[in-house]
């Protein structure tokens, strides 16, 4: 590593504007990845501090203290305790906020105990005047044994000063600002004697935390009977916290003055409205309607554009590239596969736009507060609201959003039931089936029946999510404490830059995360659909040629060949072999093929049917596919295939079945086990099968 | 019987006396919910749970079951 | 004799299968190595 590159770690409580400081320091020069083996986001940025000095800046997950209660938080501890980690910082920058300095300093004193050079950033300095706050910086710097940078990331003040402090990090004191071991001198003295070469506070963290890297070491400590019962340890931790607050209070008594007369109670007045038992819900549902409006209405404009662009691109590739199997793969597998991912970008971007505005403004905490009691009746948490809303765009980011639910059982149930919510991949399937089987009429002269059906399907998905949560809550025997603590931050106007970066990052991680899986599957599915085992497949053109000459069939030759090939391809064979299983649901082998291939992503269903009914290669017009599907009759009975019974059965199947391999992958990642995605698959698809079976048998 | 945070009226203040350490999340302690500190009930969510309190300048929402574990002494407002 | 296009297609196919295999069945990377040397936790 370059000698003039300083490694900086940004640490701080949630809601202190740490990310804005990060964005100000690095601009757009940042990357998001994952920590090895876990799905916690790792944000690294690069900053030019001066002519000669550069810095890599690691934005660590927000944490209230070094006592981890979530996966995100343990990342912070593991990094700060492991000097050999390649990301171990030369200097720690603790970001605090001027209005919550007292609480923010708790983490600061803990970091200081690790004897890492530390800078204290006091952010939101622009709020000092309206809030009547004055600080004695020299006094605070002396007591806290650090350098302080007063920053306003909103007004872009103080960033240069911070950069200067980082450059001069070697001048920082590494002395702790208080002696935490005095809470139990006897215990800590014997600990010191047993491990003379170690930092006492590190030992203490190893004893109290269940952090990964320390397994070996923990055993050693336990052998030496330093382990204590959990309650005793917690009592000691309480003592430690009190001790730290004593020090902080004494320091702030001199260095931090608030003139209460200038302070306003804007927050409390707004809280009274936003958490009101009637207005609170009215406002929340108003915002929900706005989100749905954006996802389903506004996004349709860019989505149609993307759809057309990829169709054009695909046919362009087919006609302009040298003919051959690779060209087929590109035009029939890769381009449509990419299109299938990119088409979701508008919806996902809108969704994250709203969610990050709501989170930045502080409103999301009020929603959690408002919904917690209701959600808990179903074994969920108030914090499950975000995943369930996000699920209407895509289950993948939604499941990841469940991460900040601290109760494992509530988090697990949220993860398991989120895929029931109607994600946007179901929409194309619903759209074509509804237009086939539901008449375009109005009931009571007011509501469109097709629209009503779509709404029913949405409610059905959401209802099923809630209902299965309720069942899971009864079945799952996981004992876990509630530990529900939600900070209600002050209201802020969201900063454009933060929201924009967040939307871009989240969308990117969807495209490159789920996108890779969908793309890989599209390649495999294309292969299975365009290759077949026996002669009939290879002789497709000749066979169709003969049949055309004999007038046993009619139509465009190319379409018929494509259709015939698909029928005799590997996927066609799979579709046919599962026909006995899906027959009771009212599906024939053609629908079977579509069901199998849409296991990668639901929306593939429509495209596959288009190919099977040999309309795919020439027109992507929805009406054409629809007409072809409507005309499809059963070869023996002569009845229509897509009648009401089959249509309803299919709609229900897609409403409930776990037809999404990316969701299974993310569930496996988030629960760190094969058990839960398998349960999801068996339960959801089993339920879908049963419901569709009943529906078909009743309606036929 | 001791009064707990769960029994506070909206706008009422109390001083924290003690709590059942095993039932209180450590995070809450770290936010400053410690014996001797003042706690104010700001809002009660619809259906009576969770509670929105302020303690040690932190604004937090906790569930009723947690609030029941924190015993307090009510501060009379003159 | 396979054509140039076929070779690439089979390579891509193999790559896709390997990617998915790794994604679903691949072993997770080991947690941060802490076996030897002073990494601050011994």
UniProtKB/TrEMBL annotation, chain A:
Tell me, what is one Gene Ontology molecular-function annotation carried by this entry?
Answer: metal ion binding
Task: Output the Pfam families linked to this UniProt entry.
Answer: FeoB_C, FeoB_N, Gate
Q: Does the keyword Disulfide bond apply?
A: no
Alphabetical UniProt keywords: Cell membrane, GTP-binding, Ion transport, Iron, Iron transport, Magnesium, Membrane, Metal-binding, Nucleotide-binding, Transmembrane, Transmembrane helix, Transport
Residues that bind Mg(2+), according to the entry? 23, 26-27
Question: Taking the first listed entry, what is the main subcellular location of this protein, grouped into a coarse class?
Answer: membrane
Tell me which InterPro entries the record gives: Fe2_transport_prot-B, Fe2_transport_prot_B_C, FeoB_GTPase, G_FEOB_dom, Gate_dom, GTP-bd, P-loop_NTPase
Where along the chain is GTP bound? 12-19, 37-41, 59-62, 123-126
| Spans traversing the lipid bilayer | 278-296, 334-358, 378-400, 412-439, 451-472, 510-528, 641-666, 678-699
The record's subcellular locations are: Cell inner membrane; Cell membrane
Give membrane topology per the record: Multi-pass membrane protein
What is stated as this protein's family in its record?
Belongs to the TRAFAC class TrmE-Era-EngA-EngB-Septin-like GTPase superfamily. FeoB GTPase (TC 9.A.8) family.
Task: Tell me the protein's name.
Answer: Ferrous iron transport protein B
UniProtKB/TrEMBL annotation, chain B:
**Keyword annotations for this protein?**
Iron
Task: Output the superkingdom of the source species.
Answer: Bacteria
Q: So which residues are the signal peptide here?
A: none
Q: Which Gene3D superfamilies match?
A: 2.30.30.90
Domain Ferrous iron transporter FeoA-like, chain residue ranges per copy: 3-74
Provide an example Pfam family for this protein. FeoA
Molecular function terms in GO for this entry? transition metal ion binding
Q: What is this protein called?
A: Ferrous iron transport protein A
TrEMBL record, chain C:
- Put simply, this protein is called Attachment p12 family protein
Q: Tell me which UniProt keywords the record has, alphabetically.
A: Membrane, Transmembrane, Transmembrane helix
UniProt organism field:
Flavobacterium cauense R2A-7
Membrane-crossing ranges are: 7-25
A Pfam family this chain is assigned to: FeoB_associated
Instruction: Tell me if Membrane is a UniProt keyword of this record.
Output: yes
């Amino acid at each position: 590593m370059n000698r003039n590159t300083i490694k900086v770690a940004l640490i701080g409580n949630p809601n202190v504007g740490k990310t804005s400081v990060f964005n100000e320091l690095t601009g757009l020069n940042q990357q998001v990845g994952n920590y090895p083996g876990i799905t916690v986001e790792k944000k690294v940025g690069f900053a030019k501090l001066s002519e000669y000095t550069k810095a890599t800046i690691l934005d660590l997950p927000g944490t209230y203290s070094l006592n981890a209660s979530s996966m995100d938080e343990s990342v912070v501890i593991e990094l700060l305790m492991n000097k050999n980690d390649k990301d171990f910082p030369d200097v720690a920058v603790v970001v605090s906020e001027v209005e919550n300095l007292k609480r923010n300093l708790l983490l600061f004193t803990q970091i200081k105990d690790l004897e890492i050079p530390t800078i204290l950033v006091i952010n939101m300095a622009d709020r000092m005047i309206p809030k009547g706050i004055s600080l004695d910086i020299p006094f605070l710097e002396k007591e806290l044994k650090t350098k302080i940078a007063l920053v306003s990331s909103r007004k872009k003040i103080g960033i240069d000063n911070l950069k200067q402090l980082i450059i001069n990090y070697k001048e920082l004191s590494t002395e702790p600002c208080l002696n935490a071991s005095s809470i139990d001198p006897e215990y800590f003295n014997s600990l010191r004697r047993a491990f003379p070469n170690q930092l006492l506070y590190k030992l203490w963290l190893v004893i109290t935390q269940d952090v990964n890297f320390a397994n070996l070491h923990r055993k050693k400590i336990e052998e030496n009977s330093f382990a204590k019962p959990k309650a005793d340890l917690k009592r000691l931790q309480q003592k430690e916290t009190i001790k730290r607050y004593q020090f902080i209070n004494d320091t702030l008594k001199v260095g931090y003055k608030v003139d209460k007369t200038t302070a306003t109670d804007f927050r409390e007045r707004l809280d009274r409205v936003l958490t009101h038992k009637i207005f609170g819900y009215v406002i929340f549902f108003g915002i929900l309607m706005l989100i749905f409006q954006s996802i389903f209405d506004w996004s349709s404009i860019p989505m149609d554009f993307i759809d057309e662009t990829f169709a054009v691109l695909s046919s362009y590739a087919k006609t302009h590239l040298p003919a051959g199997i690779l060209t087929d793969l590109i035009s029939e597998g890769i381009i449509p596969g990419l299109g299938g991912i990119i088409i979701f970008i508008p919806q996902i971007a809108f969704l994250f736009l709203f969610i990050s505005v709501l989170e930045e403004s502080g409103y999301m905490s009020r929603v959690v507060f408002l919904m917690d009691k209701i959600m808990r009746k179903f074994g969920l948490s108030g914090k499950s609201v975000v995943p369930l809303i996000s699920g209407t765009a895509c289950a993948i980011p939604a499941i990841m959003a469940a991460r900040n639910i601290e109760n494992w059982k509530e988090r697990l149930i949220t993860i398991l039931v989120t895929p029931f919510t109607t994600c946007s991949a179901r929409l194309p399937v619903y759209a074509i089936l509804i237009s086939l089987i539901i008449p375009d009429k109005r009931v009571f002269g007011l509501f469109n029946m097709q629209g009503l059906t779509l709404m029913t399907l949405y409610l059905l998905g959401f209802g099923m999510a809630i209902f299965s949560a309720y069942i899971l809550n009864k079945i799952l025997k996981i004992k876990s404490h509630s530990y529900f603590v939600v900070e209600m931050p002050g209201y802020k106007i969201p900063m454009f830059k933060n929201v924009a970066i967040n939307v871009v990052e989240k969308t990117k991680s969807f495209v490159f995360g789920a996108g890779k899986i969908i793309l890989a599957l599209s390649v495999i599915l294309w292969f299975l659909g365009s290759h077949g085992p026996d002669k009939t497949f290879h002789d497709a053109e000749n066979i169709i040629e003969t049949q055309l000459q004999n007038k046993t069939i009619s139509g465009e030759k190319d379409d018929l060949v494509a259709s015939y090939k698909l029928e005799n391809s590997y996927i066609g064979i799979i579709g046919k072999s599962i026909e006995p299983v899906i027959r009771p649901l009212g599906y024939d082998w053609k629908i079977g093929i579509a069901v199998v291939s849409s296991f990668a992503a639901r929306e593939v269903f429509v495209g596959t049917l288009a190919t099977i009914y040999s309309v795919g290669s020439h027109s992507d017009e929805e009406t054409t596919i629809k007409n072809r599907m409507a005309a499809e009759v059963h070869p023996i009975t002569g009845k229509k295939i897509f009648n009401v019974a089959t249509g309803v059965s299919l709609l229900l199947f897609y409403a409930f079945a776990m037809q999404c391999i990316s969701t299974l992958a993310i569930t496996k990642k988030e629960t760190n086990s094969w058990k839960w995605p398998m349960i999801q698959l068996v339960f959801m698809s089993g339920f879908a099968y049963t419901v569709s079976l009943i529906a078909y048998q009743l309606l036929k | 019987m001791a009064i707990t945070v769960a029994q506070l009226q909206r706008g009422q203040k109390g001083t924290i006396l003690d709590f059942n350490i095993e039932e209180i999340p450590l995070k809450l302690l770290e936010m400053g919910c410690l014996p001797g500190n003042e706690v104010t009930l700001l809002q009660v969510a619809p259906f009576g749970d969770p509670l929105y309190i302020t303690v040690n300048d932190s604004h937090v929402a906790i569930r009723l079951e947690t609030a029941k574990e924190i015993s307090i002494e009510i501060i009379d407002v003159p | 004799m396979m054509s140039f296009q076929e070779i690439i297609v089979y390579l891509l196919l193999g790559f896709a299968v390997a990617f998915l295999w790794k994604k679903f069945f691949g072993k997770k990377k080991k947690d941060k190595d802490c076996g030897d040397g002073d990494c601050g936790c011994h």
